[in-house]
């Protein structure tokens, strides 16, 4: 019995396991990236009549930074989150490097060369954040693209996503990470809940909705809540409001008539409203920007989003 008492005494003396702190509580607001594509364009084109409007309406706002297949991902992420931390601000990052990404859309293809390469990359990404506060959206579109994939490819993708969630869980304790959960017009809520479960959503804070899309905040919140209900509660969700003020017209690739949504904030119908997609960055060579490649900034797109035209 003496050894049992010793073990019990030792357990009481051991420090309690660390719990992740809320990155919102650890910071004094969202980080504004001075080198976002709209901010850089406005800075480099001071003589253009559109520059001041783009900077005021977009470049000066907190916008997520997307990270792709950079061999130095750990140091790049560490530098970016360190700059935010030095200003007591909360950065929003997007991990976007799955092999075969954008399988159905096709405009943003690419990603890591293999599952092994992806695991190395995402491990470095999480380690680069470390204990600094951050918000991360994990792999937009990854769980909506299944109709263009074989079951073997789906299984392989799920394994990579589970690994990604584990890396943020283990290496970035003060990060709120969200697996992407598509949007209100894509995959049924119950189906998405099943996919999120298989991809490791229980390892992270929750999921994101409406990334790079246009559904209103209310429609996105209804969808997010339906997914949470199908999951049996637990995970939280965030909404991309970057371009959703006018809602969706059923098109996803540079549609006309869209408008900037509510800037980044806590609450508002979800855990957070975020500008995940950079307003003014093209969705692909389509819609109102048939010659602008995916991810490239267009001042013409930006102004149309400001004006809602």
Automatic annotation (TrEMBL):
EC number(s) recorded for this UniProt protein: 3.2.1.-
Catalytic residues in the record: 141 (proton donor)
Pfam families, per the entry: Glyco_hydro_6
Keywords assigned: Carbohydrate metabolism, Cellulose degradation, Disulfide bond, Glycosidase, Hydrolase, Polysaccharide degradation, Signal
Signal peptide (UniProt feature, chain positions): 1-20
PROSITE patterns cross-referenced by the UniProt entry: GLYCOSYL_HYDROL_F6_2 (PS00656)
Protein family (similarity comment): Belongs to the glycosyl hydrolase family 6.
Protein name in UniProt: Glucanase
Taxonomic source organism: Lentzea pudingi
């Amino acid at each position: 019995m003496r050894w049992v008492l010793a073990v019990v005494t030792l357990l009481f003396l051991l420090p309690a396991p660390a719990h992740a702190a809320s990155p919102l509580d650890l910071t004094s607001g969202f980080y504004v990236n001075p080198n976002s594509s709209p901010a850089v364009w406005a800075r480099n084109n001071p003589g253009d009549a559109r520059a001041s409007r783009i900077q005021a309406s977009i470049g000066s706002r907190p916008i997520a930074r997307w990270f792709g297949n950079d061999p130095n991902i750990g140091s790049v992420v560490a530098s970016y989150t360190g700059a935010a931390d030095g200003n007591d601000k909360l950065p929003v990052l997007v991990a976007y490097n799955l092999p075969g990404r954008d399988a159905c859309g096709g405009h943003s293809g690419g990603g890591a060369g293999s599952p092994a390469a992806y695991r190395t990359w995402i491990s470095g990404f999480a380690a680069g954040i470390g204990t600094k506060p951050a918000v991360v959206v994990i792999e937009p579109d990854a769980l909506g693209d299944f109709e263009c994939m074989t079951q073997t490819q789906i299984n392989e993708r799920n394994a990579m996503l589970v690994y990604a969630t584990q890396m943020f869980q283990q290496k970035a304790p003060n990060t709120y990470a969200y697996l992407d959960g598509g949007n209100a017009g894509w995959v049924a809520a119950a189906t998405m809940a099943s996919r999120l479960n298989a991809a490791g959503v229980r390892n992270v804070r929750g999921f994101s909705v409406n990334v790079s899309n246009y559904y209103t905040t209310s429609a996105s919140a209804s969808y997010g809540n339906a997914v949470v209900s199908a999951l049996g509660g637990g995970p939280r969700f965030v909404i991309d409001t970057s371009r959703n003020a006018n809602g969706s017209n059923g098109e996803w690739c540079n549609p006309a008539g869209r408008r900037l949504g509510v800037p980044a904030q806590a609450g508002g119908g979800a855990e957070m409203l975020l500008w995940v997609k950079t307003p003014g960055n093209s969705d692909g060579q389509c819609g109102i920007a048939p010659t602008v490649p995916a991810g490239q900034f267009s001042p013409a797109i930006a102004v149309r989003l400001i004006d809602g035209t």
